[in-house]
DNA sequence: CTTATTTTAGAACAATCGTTATAAAATTCG
DNA sequence: CGAATTTTATAACGATTGTTCTAAAATAAG
């Protein structure tokens, strides 16, 4: 019927994602996105809608690529190792981050304007997903004795979620090895049986 | 010599702070600040410099009023109570926050453009101040036996700093009592002797 | 080939951005 | 009072914002 697209939707989303990730929503202009994606304003609007919609789709893409897949990989490990691998991974990502972009999801949590309920719900849901992953892993570890059972798994998961989030924020301003490793080292007292 | 100012510098800073706090740097326009402070563009530029300078002074004002004074109040308590009061306070502030503004310092950590080294250093230094407060308090508690000595005080302080930061971020997107209280509840396993 | 439909390219839009120029109003010192 | 000086108020500046319009290019179906 009509002329086919010259671009790959996923690649464009990746390019937009990278720019939003590095600069945040407000600081990224439509012209930045045009430059990064290589296509024109009309094409962007035609394919993705307005700026906010493009941001949302970029964030979804990031969550899928950068979080969901990682969780899936951890689920194959025994609970204790899953937790350790997970936090080791957070450490690596935070330290090998020359631009100090941090985690796009955590950035989004503060980047979102308070009145944008929809986007906030999206971020909240992903965080809830992380929390239930942690909770299930902890509960499994408590069942097999590899993780301390002094506290309810739900509370421990919330604690770990806070540590995870905090590290991602701290790393943006103070990307110091000692700081980040110290923050997770004391986790031993929480999870050791 | 000349006409005196019609405004109180501190009050203006408070008004600007409130706006920056609620909306962030980028999303706050000079016209917003004119509206909130009640004075004109020329007066603002004359008294405080450009927008970034005004933001920095607002943040300094916030740190002085909202953090330094609180730390000073905690220093008078015995170490264990100081920590508990501190985190209880964080919980209160996060839950009694109808606008979900969070902590302006934490917001600033992600709000700051990555190239603005100066402002980033400022934020980093305040965070370092928090860390040394926590570290000294923990060390004192370890000395008098009220706080567990299993981990070095420095690492525990880093852990607590991450929890603190994380809570402030989580509260903006998920201001749920159970989540925030659960995150601090598991701190017992870290600090209990 | 023609027609229909969609994507392109690039200019153009009004609105808003941070900032400054201009001149009137207000005060202290001589 | 008059001179000097600073703060006010208002309007305006060019630049950039997100978004859309116009027309040319390109393909699939008839």
Task: Explain what this protein looks like in three dimensions.
- The structure is a homodimer of 193-residue chains.
- By secondary structure, chain A is mainly α.
- Chain A has ten helices and no strands.
- Chain A has helices at 9-23, 30-37, 41-48, 51-75, 79-95, 104-111, 117-144, 153-173, 177-185, 188-191.
- In chain A, helix 1 (9-23) crosses helix 2 (30-37), helix 5 (79-95) crosses helix 7 (117-144) and helix 7 packs across helix 8.
- Chain A is elongated and about 60 Å long.
- The mean pLDDT of chain A is 94.
- At the A-B interface, helix 6, helix 7, helix 8, helix 9 and helix 10 of A face helix 6, helix 7, helix 8, helix 9 and helix 10 of B.
- The first copy, chain A, binds a DNA duplex (30 and 30 nucleotides) through residues 1-6, 29-31, 39-43, 45-47, 50-51.
């Amino acid at each position: 019927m009509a002329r086919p697209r010259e671009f790959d939707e996923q690649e464009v989303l990746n390019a937009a994602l990278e720019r939003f990730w590095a600069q945040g929503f407000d600081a990224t202009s439509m012209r930045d996105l045009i430059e990064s994606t290589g296509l024109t304003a009309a094409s962007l609007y035609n394919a993705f809608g307005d700026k906010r919609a493009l941001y949302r789709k970029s964030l979804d893409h990031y969550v899928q690529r950068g979080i969901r897949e990682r969780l899936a990989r951890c689920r194959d490990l025994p609970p204790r190792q899953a937790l350790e691998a997970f936090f080791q991974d957070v450490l690596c990502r935070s330290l090998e981050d020359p631009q100090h972009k941090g985690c796009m999801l955590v950035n989004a949590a503060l980047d979102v304007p308070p009145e944008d309920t929809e986007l906030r719900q999206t971020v909240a849901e992903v965080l809830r997903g992380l929390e239930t992953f942690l909770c299930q892993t902890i509960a499994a570890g408590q069942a097999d004795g590899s993780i301390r059972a002094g506290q309810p798994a739900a509370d421990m998961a919330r604690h770990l979620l806070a540590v995870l989030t905090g590290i991602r924020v701290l790393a943006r301003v103070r990307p110091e090895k000692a700081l980040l490793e110290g923050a997770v080292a004391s986790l031993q007292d929480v999870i050791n049986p």
